[in-house]
Amino acid sequence: MINLTLTEALKKLNNREISAVELTRAYLDRIEKYGADLNCYITTTPERALADAAASDARRAAGDTLPLDGVPIAMKDLFATRGIRTTAASRMLENFIPEYESTVSQKFIDAGTVLLGKANLDEFAMGTFSKTSFFGAPVNPWQLEKRLTAGGSSGGSTSAVAGGLALAATGTDTGGSIRFPSAITGLVGMKPTYGLCSRWGCVAFASSLDTPGPIARTVDDTAMVLSAMAGHDEKDSTSSKNGFTCTAPLEPILGNGKKLRVGIIKEFSDVKISDDMKSLFEKRISDLKSMGAEIIEVSIPNILDALAAYYIIAPAEASSNLARYDGMRYGLRIEGRDIYDTFKKTRAAGFGDEVKRRMIIGTAVLSSESYDVYFMQAARVRRMIADSFNSAFEQCDLIICPSSAGPAMSLASDLSPLEYYALDLFTVAMNLAGIPACSVPAGLATNGLPLGIQVVGRRFDDMRVLQLAKHIETAAGIDNRPTTIMGK
Ligand code: GLN
């Protein structure tokens, strides 16, 4: 049962071939069997899952079926869930039980999903391998014995979906945290247009970049999940009025003489990527050409400066957002001699090294001596990148580029902070510009590990991004069924 895609499972549920309780039990068994090895959940919620599933079966029996009724999902542990521990993978929030429900997780309840648990991640979503988690790193289900990273920061979500411990999951993408982990676990992961999914109740990292989005096994599944997550929210002032609704299967945008101009980014052709990534990217381009797409080279002149701009803006916003963890209102408190000593002791003990590093960088770039030279320059680069994407989209409809330079690396790799930051080269620019980007499997590298390609669109062109991703998915045709990648 765990090999069914979300779309297939929904069909079987609707035809009464399986029940939500049966499907949920199949997933709970997988969690029982592999949960500890993969370390993909910080908290599992089996009782809640079975209650959700029973309620779903009852709705179906009564004829009040909801869009994702009975679909077992994992929620990144950054979304506040009422009555269920929400940690952001930090010691600071190790025992935090919210009294409110995030808008996104509420939308999943409203869509009829079954909550399996809260997925592991990098602490406060800061990282690339999910190794900054206070609860230890999740593991990639591909070639499990090698203990590879499932990526980050949404690495618990991708580990769970790839390993068959959830049918779909939520992620958040501030600089690549949905797309990179999805790419290296053979999944589809979508960073929607900024503002399409509400940030309300989602633990903040860098508010002008944070983008909730879906992770699933196929593009159709991803579109279905996005449809449930998206929508205007009065509680988030940056929430867009544009919604996103769809039903699978998505309509083709190529073939039958349809015209589509697909851009490739000139500046990325000089970036060193693995031979496998290079050849798969070329293969997928020639597939698109043979389907009738016109391939056009476009230029985003400042795109290689996106990393530098991102690593100024994101820490600046983080240092401000994380000031709220002071040991007074909620979360960890370590009593000191006086209030200042309590602040210091609490923050010293509650945050891990990477989070502290970001707050130090962020505080520095926001200081009066540095503001003009660092923060304002970064903001300017951000504007130029967004403008360049706008002009590129006058020449082409959609853009494609690699999701990463290479496949999953070992969790044991010892990278410096700058080496980790450099891995975000292909993803951060889209966050700076606020535009939609979806990573879709491009094929398998020679060592058998999956690689991904991104489809990028103009603001609110999320539907066409997914439609083109689906053509790439079909052309690549990788087998990402959980039982074929990690056995029964
Ligand atoms: N790897 C990037 C970082 O560490 C992106 C993280 C994210 O998108 N949440 O900031």
What keyword list fits this structure?
alpha/beta; Amidase signature (AS) enzymes; eleven-stranded mixed β-sheet; globular
Give a short overview.
By secondary structure, the protein is of the alpha/beta class.
The end-to-end distance, rounded to whole angstroms, is 11 Å
Annotated CATH topology of the largest domain: Amidase signature (AS) enzymes
Give the C-alpha Rg: 21 Å
Continuous helix count = 16
CATH architecture designation of the largest domain: Alpha-Beta Complex
Indicate how many domains the architecture comprises: 2
Low-confidence stretches: none
Task: Give an overview of the whole structure.
This protein is of the alpha/beta class. The chain folds into two domains: 6-255 and 400-486, Amidase signature (AS) enzymes, CATH 3.90.1300.10; 304-378, no CATH class. The protein has 16 helices and eleven strands. It has an eleven-stranded mixed β-sheet, sandwiched between helices. The longest helix is centred in the last third of the chain and has 25 residues, at 371-395. It is globular, with a radius of gyration of 21 Å. The mean pLDDT is 97. The protein binds glutamine. Glutamine (GLN) binds next to loops.
What is this structure's SSE topology?
Blueprint: H1 6-14, H2 20-38, E1 41-44, H3 46-62, E2 72-76, H4 103-110, E3 114-119, H5 155-162, E4 168-173, H6 179-183, E5 188-191, E6 211-216, H7 219-229, E7 260-265, H8 275-290, E8 293-298, H9 306-321, H10 339-350, H11 353-366, H12 371-395, E9 398-402, H13 417-422, H14 428-433, E10 437-444, E11 450-456, H15 462-476, H16 482-486
Parallel strand pairs: 2-3, 2-4, 7-8, 7-9
Antiparallel strand pairs: 1-3, 4-6, 5-6, 5-10, 9-11, 10-11
Helix pairs in contact: 2-3, 7-15, 9-11, 9-12
